[in-house]
């Protein structure tokens, strides 16, 4: 057994049984080992950003890491933006990067670079193997590092000779340390704040946005009158009919400041206090009022459920809080626009759907419209680095093959990693992609005004994608995905229903004026 095979066996034994790859010469022994080891599913991407974005989407839904396989520094560099998103989502990822043989590095051959330095900003853990016999141990350590709370990217760099040299024994993943528990004094302080009678917000992230956390938070809210609020963008929210709803802060700074106006206590669990995505002249970076006391009760690495349970006990929360009920929207009539499309989504999405949201400006109002939709998960662009949607949907579909994945996708962002559609076709994944073809970088047009810039013709030219118009139907078909373009609401509804009722990848280009 060589080092590569010892690594693949260690990964499979450690529960890492999917690998999102784009390999090269230095990874050939890893690739060859895949044939000798049962139990590892390998999924090829045509660009590394597809592989890393899929690893993020997979981890969010599977709650465990997949591995990547990337080609030296340049391959890692191509995958970096979506590793950034994975880091922001606190997704566990075992990020395997091939490297020149240890003795070849000093020759400075063309693909040589400082891989560790490229990896470090997005990685919670970085290690380069130096000995083929140690590869299995390093692989097990990488799994543990990726899974260690709050979850992160563990980059394991694998020189070619450590892959082809004699391997060691398959290694077991070390036990994970328990998550730290919130301080008793912090729980008491939070309870005091919530019972003060002053306006309070429970600001939630990470695990608290799953069903159990939201139930607990709703009980605390029922006892104290606190409001529940989440970040603008979150890794995964469990929502829809029968689940406690949570509002998200809006993206525009003024609207976010308004939403938190009057709040005197902000209790933060599973995330960090809210800040503006960007600085704007004359606008604040911190979004809560100046006189609001902020308390981080449990950061994302801590046991958030335990913190909410203890807080619920201390404030005398009822055993259960009634879940607000409401009707899901009717299928809409009228013009084709963001509002009617949002209603259609709320009306028609099936139970168990996984919504991968990179809808940027078009989808801002989709979230409220699906509040009483069938129960579903909502995954967002947590790191702000566009080009995640199509890969994330691909990874989510691999993690959950029995669930419908609906990728609500802005066109400009989709074009960063559109070739991941080919992977959806190749793997026959059940992903329905809705492209919002507004043929512009619409959000940036608003941002020009927000930063106080005075755009002329050249500036606006940098933000329009209509010359020539991009033909998504041809693009999708070129990658092997069936597709349809719609220009009115009836055709949209027909195409959407058709896409929902079939299995396998399908794309609808929604032309928006
Ligand atoms: C990797 C990366 N590059 C560039 C940007 C800057 N950026 C933010 S939004 C955006 C355009 C988004 O356009 P589109 O996806 O079509 O959405 P729309 O605004 O039209 O709804 C760009 C280029 C970014 N956030 N991330």
Describe the structure in your own words.
By secondary structure, the protein is α/β, with parallel strands linked by helices. Helices cover 37% and strands 18% of the residues. It is built from 20 helices and 18 strands. The protein has helices at 3-13, 28-36, 48-62, 72-89, 115-119, 135-147, 160-164, 184-195, 211-224, 253-260, 304-314, 338-348, 366-369, 389-399, 411-414, 420-426, 442-450, 457-461, 472-478, 489-501; strands at residues 18-21, 41-44, 67-71, 93-99, 125-128, 153-159, 200-204, 227-230, 237-239, 247-248, 265-269, 293-298, 353-358, 376-380, 405-410, 431-437, 482-486, 506-511. The strands form three sheets. It has a seven-stranded mixed beta sheet with strand order 9-14-13-15-16-18-17, sandwiched between helices. The chain is globular, with a radius of gyration of 24 Å. It binds thiamine diphosphate. Thiamine diphosphate (TPP) binds at residues 81, 360-362, 384-387, 410-413, 438, 440-444. Thiamine diphosphate (TPP) binds next to helix 15 and helix 17.
Hetero groups in this structure are: thiamine diphosphate
| Unreliably modeled segments | none
Q: How would a textbook summarize the main sheet?
A: 7 strands, mixed
Helical content stands at 25-40%
Q: Which structural class should the secondary elements be placed in?
A: alpha/beta
What is the residue-averaged pLDDT?
A: 96
Radius of gyration, in Å, reads 24 Å
Number of helices: 20
Query: What would you call the shape?
Result: globular
Secondary structure: number of strands: 18
Distance between the termini: 60 Å
Side by side, the strands of the main sheet go 9-14-13-15-16-18-17
Beta-sheet strand percentage? 15-25%
